Amino acid sequence: MLRAWSLVAVIALPGATQAAPASHPVSAAASSAPASGAVISAPTVPDPASFKAMDKPSDDGSAMRVEWARPAREAEGIAYVVEIAESPNDFKSGKFKSKVVKPSPPDEGDLYRTDISPASDKFFPPPESPPLTAERLKELAAEKVITGGELARAQAIMESMQRAQSKPGDQSRPAAESKPGTQSSPGSASEPSAELPREDKDWFGRLREYVHNRDWLKSFATAENRALTDGQLSRALAALESEYRERNTAGDRAEQDWLHRLMAFLKEKDQSEQKDRIAAINSRTWYVRLAVMKGDKKFYVGEGGQPAIRSARAKANYFNWAKLNNLLFSLIFCAIVFAFIEVAKRRRNLFLRKIAGLEAVDEAIGRSTEMDRPVFFVHGLGGMGDLATIASVNILARVARRTAEHDSRVRVMNVDPIVTAVSQEVVQQAYTEAGRPDAYNPDDVSLVASDQFSYVAAVSGIMVREQPGAIFLLGSFYAESLLLAETGASTGAIQIAGTDAYTQLPFFITTCDYTLIGEELYAASAYLSREPRLLGSLRGQDVGKAFLMIVMIVGSLVLTVAAVFGANLDWLRRIFSAN
Amino acid sequence: MFLKRLTIPLIIVFVLGLLAFVQDYVPHPLAGEFREEMTSWSRIIGGFALFLGAYSLLHMHVTRIRRKTAGWGYSVFVFIGAAFMIVVGLHNEGLGPLQDIEGGTTWFDWGYDNIVVPCGGTIFSILAFFMASAAFRTFRARNLGAALLLIAAVIVMFGRVPISETVGQWVFGSSAVFPKLTDAIMDYPNLAAKRGIMLGISLGAISQSMRILFGIERSYLGGD
């Protein structure tokens, strides 16, 4: 069924007029678009029924979405223009902003979507402080904020700047973008001209900053905003003036320090309020219309002889639906792990694949004991928020317990104070549980440096001096991995390393006796504990990995076959796509 | 006592862990505010822990000096360095602590730029030599796997240097042979292995998070 297309058409798009079906009537509508030329054929502009505006789903309320269907025939060299205004009447008065959307290749689907944040700089941002104008300078002189001499000097500088701006053929200055509320007015000051003497440029910059900060401070002592009392404002303005006039007595410096602290506080407060202002702008109802643009001509998608107008407002959403697949997979995986924990509780002899590096832990500690050398445990650079470090602390608990049982000594060298505190607690507890609380020495678990290479120097030095029997390099490592592992290898110690940083794994594999690769690090604590509940979770982890392998193999096959037969299985891709 | 030592920390871990998990799926600004709040708390706790760390470091070095253990002389340098940086930091060119100095170089900056940074650079530069010695040890064709590793490494290293284009042009008539072969090794077998490791890490991370969240794994609290 043919739709009653109605659109604003002022000129034929190349390659479209000839193909226009006679049954597609179009009408001209009053708009701000330039009017001239012939009537456009309908299939070259989007169907008005497909033109929609809505809240952008699954976002934080900062954007609205506009979408429309690709027209039946998309002419060459066009672009789509989405216009946004605060009210329908603003379109007629020209108070709207535009967003240009370039056509996408046909294989990217038939639906165009664009997201608009109304409060962003391109559209309707919260008002900024007005630029410094000649009129404002006169006001300041009248208020005796600046002297007559300063007024004359500033006016001369601004005139020089205007002359530089209006110089024909001057390509060096980019055209100023128009911003709502900051339309350039005659005599407004942007950047001082390059021709001005440096002294004048510096002085004018200070004057502009002074005026800006003065107005900004005053905005905190208005009837609506009483963040500052009148007394505080007077003191702040006096300090600001003393800074502008470069007064440098001890009293002036103290007042200026106070002003800087006050301004830092107000800036933080202002940023928080700015967020609220942005949220308020975004959550208003906004109106949009859509046009196809060819050169500087626009052809509006219309209804009833008028450009079609849609409205929407952005809302903060409570669930990101794009992550639904992620959530479901996480929950399924959790269910599998819990199921295997239950199985492990009933079946004590649950099979787990052997991890050579963990099988060697007892051998390494035993060797250290026999040689009467300490066991070294290095966490790497991660903090306690790092999963690899948490895993390594868990392993430390097991290693320290066995070291205490063997009547040997464990040394833990850290770079992070929180990891140090946690490690001290863990090792002390392990010694207590082993029945040897007196053998715990707090100096054995210490912070040795707080910087990457200082840490390397400290740990390497201790390794060379104390000649450990076993070294555990477990946690989060960066460039220091090879430096530590090579130094450790030179001492002849058994080295067991493990990290989730795959870029560092080759270094550990080449220099250490055993390496825990990726998830083996996370599995280590459970593996060493032999506790059924922990072992069950490892089995669940392995089953999850098997599930992923099957999905990848089957998915690759299915998508390959679908590609051969031309079937569209985008829904299958979407199920497994990460968002 | 038991309640204080284990139960309360476990409850805190469970509640905050669950909230951190949920906020990842919630785009609402409230979730962002929660994240910022947690980050602030983390920084505050980190600030307190800094004192513990400093105490731990100084205590260890005092003990080393007192007992004259091997290399105790290095511990003296810890105190000299720390004292120097603390004094010049507090003096701050006569302005006192925590005051901004616009332009110019302070003694604190001088100490950092001329002692800490060059020393760090020196340690980092040793990496090049260690890399060569590690490669020499590893790249021996002792078995099939090691031989494959050796061949792949030689191709990748050769394909990354300009002379490979000249050799490729001379031998195969195309300068792109070795760079393309290098890219093929990096983009297919290497990337596949890397992704396999990353998938394993992700599953391991989820599994470990669950163990910690539900109190199954408690070693980090100092006990089974």
Task: Give the arrangement of secondary structure elements.
The complex is a heterodimer of chains A (579) and B (224).
Chain A: E1 6-7, E2 52-55, E3 64-69, E4 78-85, H1 88-92, E5 96-101, E6 111-116, H2 134-142, H3 148-166, H4 198-218, H5 230-244, H6 250-282, E7 286-294, E8 297-303, E9 306-307, E10 309-312, H7 324-346, H8 356-359, H9 361-371, E11 375-380, H10 387-405, E12 410-414, H11 417-433, E13 445-447, H12 452-466, E14 470-476, H13 480-490, E15 494-499, H14 505-511, E16 514-517, H15 519-529, H16 532-565, H17 570-576
Helix pairs in contact in A: 2-3, 4-5, 5-6, 7-16, 10-11, 10-15, 12-13, 15-16
Chain B: H1 2-23, H2 29-67, H3 72-91, H4 107-138, H5 144-159, H6 163-172, H7 177-213
What does this structure look like?
Chain A has 579 residues and is α/β, with parallel strands linked by helices. Chain A has four domains: 11-118 and 285-318, Sandwich (Immunoglobulin-like), CATH 2.60.40.10; 134-169 and 180-281, no CATH class; 325-340 and 540-574, no CATH class; 356-529, 3-Layer(aba) Sandwich (Rossmann fold), CATH 3.40.50. Chain A is 45% helix and 15% strand. In chain A, strands 1, 4, 5, 7, 8, 9 and 10 form a seven-stranded antiparallel beta sheet that branches. Chain A has a six-stranded parallel beta sheet with strand order 13-12-11-14-15-16, with helices on both faces. Chain A starts with 5 loop residues before the first strand and ends with a helix. Mean pLDDT of chain A is 84; it is low at 1-41 and 169-187. Chain B starts with a helix and ends in an 11-residue tail after the last helix. Chain B is extended. In chain B, helix 5 packs across helix 7. In chain B, 79% of the residues lie in helices and 0% in strands. Chain B folds into three domains: 1-66; 70-138, no CATH class; 140-224, no CATH class. The chains are: A alpha/beta (579), B mainly alpha (224). Chains A and B meet through helix 7, helix 10, helix 11, strand 13 and helix 12 of A and helix 2, helix 4 and helix 7 of B.
